[in-house]
Amino acid sequence: MHRVNGACDRVTTVFFLYWPISCTSLPLPLDIVHILTIVCFAVHFTISFSTSHSPQFPFPTMAEKVVLHYFNGRGKMESIRWLLTVAEVEFDEVHLTTREQFLKLLGDGDLMFQQVPMVEIDGMKLVQTRAILNYIAGKYNLDGKDLKERAMINMYSEGLRDLMEMIMILPFTPPADVPAKLETIQSKATERYLPVFEKALTGAMHLVGGQLSCADVELLECTLMLEEKFTGILSQFPNVKSFQGKNITFKPAITRFLQPGSKRKPQPDEDYVKTVLAVFDVKLLSR
Amino acid sequence: MHRVNGACDRVTTVFFLYWPISCTSLPLPLDIVHILTIVCFAVHFTISFSTSHSPQFPFPTMAEKVVLHYFNGRGKMESIRWLLTVAEVEFDEVHLTTREQFLKLLGDGDLMFQQVPMVEIDGMKLVQTRAILNYIAGKYNLDGKDLKERAMINMYSEGLRDLMEMIMILPFTPPADVPAKLETIQSKATERYLPVFEKALTGAMHLVGGQLSCADVELLECTLMLEEKFTGILSQFPNVKSFQGKNITFKPAITRFLQPGSKRKPQPDEDYVKTVLAVFDVKLLSR
Fold this sequence. Notes:
Shape of chain A: globular
CATH topology of the largest domain in chain A: Glutathione S-transferase Yfyf (Class Pi), Chain A, domain 2
Oligomer: homodimer
Number of domains of chain A: 3
Structural class of chain A: alpha+beta
Order of helices and strands of chain A: HHEHEHEEHHHHHHH
Strand order of the largest sheet of chain A: 2-1-3-4
Largest interface: A-B, 54 and 55 residues
Helix content of chain A: 55-70%
Largest sheet of chain A: 4 strands, mixed
């Protein structure tokens, strides 16, 4: 949307700025034509630069508040809460607590594939975690400067999502299977995932392009989740540990998000699991 | 990458085209200045328009051939083969047949998270299906005209990926569980997924923005997969069936891809399953 607006605004700007100069019927002296030409180029350059770097040029649209529809727990929504926080976007939450609420959303046609998370943003009702994350990352310049950077960010993000989903599903795993699952997660984390990030963060504070991206935000979220389950797991990964420390204090919004009373959710407990199962009307989540 | 290049090229172009005009020391008559100004604006407009619509302006870089590293079967690579075909990008394939080949790739550090698919493209070794698909879709303008269109495309794609992954995992499911899984897939396809596409395709040939996107390509792939498993499943979804027919003939490359002898892979058979399990050194894939 803003890109379309941006393009229209540029056309309008260029038209009003340049058209009088190129109109040969105006009896302007040569010097004034030259000076106006230079001024117009300068203005146009500034505009071109701004539009290609800021999605909200020239006037941010007055958007309604972002509303998240999900359980009062982490699950698939937590990465979205993280990303909105880092983008410094205010949001409200509607917590699903009963099956009736969920059926109402379904009945109203608000959930494209009959699933949550759902996020109301910029007049849309977005579903599918990755679609939502991509939209936010794109809108707030957290997805790299070009397609190659975005590809790197996507690769890191997808790896982190695989790892976080293994942790996310734990509360819905039969208790007898949990120790084995935990062992698998720990070994994959230390052998498959963390070494990649340790290497990528050699001498760098951010994973891609020397600037904050959604991959950094997901790595921060993921490392904190890992430490909750496996104390000291980052001790063999000093770059990752240092990245975590630096990024926690990188933005006041992140620091605040990690304080008690923020919109960050705690680790899932029995109540969370009961609510999810009741809302979805299932005995055990099968996948 | 091409976006960065594009920006540099524009700066250069604008500098060489406009600078002589704005140089007041040139003894040019007023009329010539005006005519040159008009010409420059026309050229610049054309360039601006081209760069914002074609990622390969002004000179496509000579890229090496795209190489896919995967099994000689569909799996997670098939959607990538589809998308490259639609983008009319030539590609080669290296088929994994032995564990040694896989260990060699791991040893060479070619697989970021020790997984395939991996695709060599534009000097990168991309992994993670979605990262690869996003890169191709972005490079070949198959991801919408703006962020909102991309969000819609992402939502449809993610739904289709969920559905296709259920089918993809079938050959690795214990035979006794297959009938129940098939029933689940069929009911989800007809109750959760196909109605969404049936509605979106009312009076439209493409899912988003009146032009071909990666979501169309995935819907085409998915509906053909569904029909292989459930004959006549599209009979209740006339818009989807009509979409399928129109898109098969939309590009000669798609028609060719559906002919025998193309790079499209057949349904997985016992040999495919055996090879996958041997290469990954597992008895049964667990998730």
